[in-house]
Amino acid sequence: MRANYIYNFSYVSNENESYFTYLVNDPSIISGFVMDISGQIQQLSWKESAKQWNLFWSQPRTQCEVYAFCGPFGICNQQSLPFCSCLKGFQVTSSDSWNLSDFSAGCARKTSLQCGNDSLANGKRDKFWEMPNMKLPDHPQTVAVGSSSECESTCLNNCFCTAYAYGDHCSIWIGDLLNLQQLTSADTNGGTLYLKLAASELSSKEITVGIVLVRDFQL
């Protein structure tokens, strides 16, 4: 919206009304703004020679910056196609929507959490899955604790806590995780997220061990 742009912008705000308008400087330019299912607002211009619309400008600049683009418990990765995938221990909520590139319904947990009830799942408590180099989810809650182990324990003992992170302070997340993004190894702005999962989601494969007993007979 700088001066001498393709459009002349005008914003009016007073005690009676507030509105925004724009007029095209060059009437030969066919252009418009669109917001589609991607969540981005896009400015398109018509290229007559190619008989197609060209993307001129978009905001947010990348899909992973669109709020809740991958839905609850979805993880966005700008380096992969499709951009969205489900966190470990979760599965797609709506396959039909997902196949149409509508990821907003997100993912659902495969196995319910133990949630402090040691009588279930063979008495195994919930565990945490380490996820390094992540753009952490929105809406964290800060907890006053003195160590990472205390932070972990706080989340583990709260049935509504779904993840935690410990850096300069302890952050926990209650309920859905939104806007989680996998960063590249070159991006140093990430943190490590610890995702709470049912113990069965993290258990190693069972190994059956056979024991042969040899009895020493005396003649």
Automatic annotation (TrEMBL):
Keyword Signal listed: yes
GO BP of this protein: recognition of pollen
Entry keywords, A to Z: Disulfide bond, Signal
GO molecular function list: kinase activity
Matching SUPFAM superfamilies: Hairpin loop containing domain-like
SMART domains documented for this protein: PAN_AP (SM00473)
Domain Apple, chain residue ranges per copy: 115-198
Protein name: G-type lectin s-receptor-like serine/threonine-protein kinase
